[in-house]
Amino acid sequence: MAVDRRRSAVLFFLVLLQCIYQISGKAAVIELNEDNWYQMLEGEWMVKFFAPWCPACKTLKPIWEDFASWSDDLGISVGQVDVTSSPGLSGRFMVIALPTIYHVKDGVFRQYRGSRDKDEFMSFIEEKRWEAVEEVPAWKSPASVQMSVVAQFFKLSMVLRGIHSVLVEEYGLPTWGSYLVFALATVVVGALLGLILVCIIDFMFPPKAPGSYPPAPGLKDDDEDLVEDVQDKMKVNVEEAISSNDKDAMKDTGEERNDGAEEEDENEEEKMVSEGEDKGQSSQGEENDSQAEDDAESKSSPEVRRRRPRKD
Questions:
Q1: Cα(203)–Cα(271) distance, integer angstroms
Q2: Which of 87, 86, 75, 84 shows the shortest CA–CA distance to 46?
Q3: Tell me, what DSSP letter sits at residue 97?
Q4: Mean pLDDT of each 10-residue bin along the chain, 312 residues long
Q5: The pTM is what?
Q6: Given 40, 57, 76, 151, which residue is catalytic?
């Protein structure tokens, strides 16, 4: 009897150890955050994005844990991200609805849009139905530089949200007062950033002196002096050409004026000559008329009549 009791106790102990091993051997959900999310870039993953306050996330929690217990058999890793504690990841993955599930295979991201139950999750992996899902484009990939920038903006938004909560809840400011504080801060920060940007541009690209020309690339100091001398000579030649053109223009205008004056003088002389001729002709005509009148008077006088011989 004692031997049977010992055997039964040993069997019970072995069964208990096996149960404990099976329970402890189940793979748990891997918690991912902004520090270790790069782990999903290697191997095959199923990752869930959730929030503690989300009702749908609460419903999915036991199903996701049960699915994670089969991760070793499926040869994948199952993780989850709390967007409230890791806002940068929600911006990096552009999470706009909760819960959101991603499948990751060697750094290639695909969003899972099937039903949320364990069997669907397992068939999605076993049958490789993820191959028919469209990949996330490269410009939108969570591992890209631009999405890293978006992640920083999401983190900044959460910081600003926290400041807003402190101003409203702890300091008792009205909502419009908090918005006014953020507006003034935005104006001040924008002015400072603009001033810094202008200073950087002036430092990197200083303004050039008037009349200066940039030296040709690859020239030494002596060559630069020669180039400056040539440029000065070109300037002098240009000025001389401009002055000579001005003088020629003045000469041309003077000659044109002289020609015009001479033509006017000739016209006046011609007018005077024609007027003189007209006057001479009129005077001669007057003299002829006077002589004719005198001859007529002399003929009609009695003395002339006496002198004339009588006709038989």
A1: 79
A2: 75
A3: S
A4: 56 50 59 90 93 93 93 92 89 89 93 91 92 89 86 79 81 84 87 90 78 52 58 72 63 52 58 55 54 52 46 46
A5: 0.52
A6: 57
Contact assessment for residue 133 and residue 108, using Cβ atoms and an 8 Å cutoff = no
Over the range 10-44, which residues count as b (16 or more CB within 10 Å of their CB) and which as e?
Answer: eeeeeeeeeeeeeeeeebebbebeeeebeebeeeb
> What residues form DSSP beta bridges with 189?
none
Rounded CA separation 138/6 (Å):
65
Strand, helix or coil at 105? Answer: strand
CB–CB of 142/102 below 8 Å? no
* Catalytic pick among 27, 54, 122, 173: 54
DSSP letters of 5-52?
HHHHHHHHHHHHHHHHHHHHHSPPPEEE-TTTGGGGGSSEEEEEEE-T
57 catalytic per annotation: yes
Count the neighbouring beta carbons within 10 Å of the beta carbon of residue 121. 25
C-alpha distance from residue 253 to each of 137, 140, 244, 247, 264 (Å): 76, 74, 14, 10, 16
User: Is residue 19 flagged as an active site residue?
Assistant: no
Give CA separation, 83 vs 60, 90, 111, in Å.
16, 6, 17
